[in-house]
Design brief:
single chain; two-stranded parallel sheet; 2 helices; globular; 93 residues
């Protein structure tokens, strides 16, 4: 999705519903998710100069930790969203 925005403001946490426990929980945003969400700022041809991703931190220590994690960390292993596919494949002989 291309959005004509110059700045994206993000928190390092997101709400996720835990079906197993029947409740909501705050989870950290993965590096891949952060990269994807921050990449929405300043899309080529939609903004004249550049885009900016702003990550909200609650202390200087937290800012250092998240900067190191999101800007310098390794991407996590990509996992399928579902353990079992919703489709079935059939082969004809």
């Amino acid at each position: 999705m291309n959005l004509p925005v110059k700045n994206v403001v993000l928190d390092h946490r997101r709400w996720q519903y835990l079906r197993r426990y029947g409740r909501w929980s705050l989870e950290d945003v993965s590096r891949s998710e952060y990269e994807n969400m921050s990449g929405r700022a300043g899309r080529l041809s939609l903004v004249e100069d550049f885009g900016r991703s702003i990550l909200v931190a609650y202390s200087p220590f937290e800012a250092d930790v998240w900067l190191d994690h999101y800007a310098g960390g390794e991407f996590e292993e990509i996992r399928p969203t579902s353990a079992t596919p919703r489709w079935r494949t059939t082969s004809s002989i």
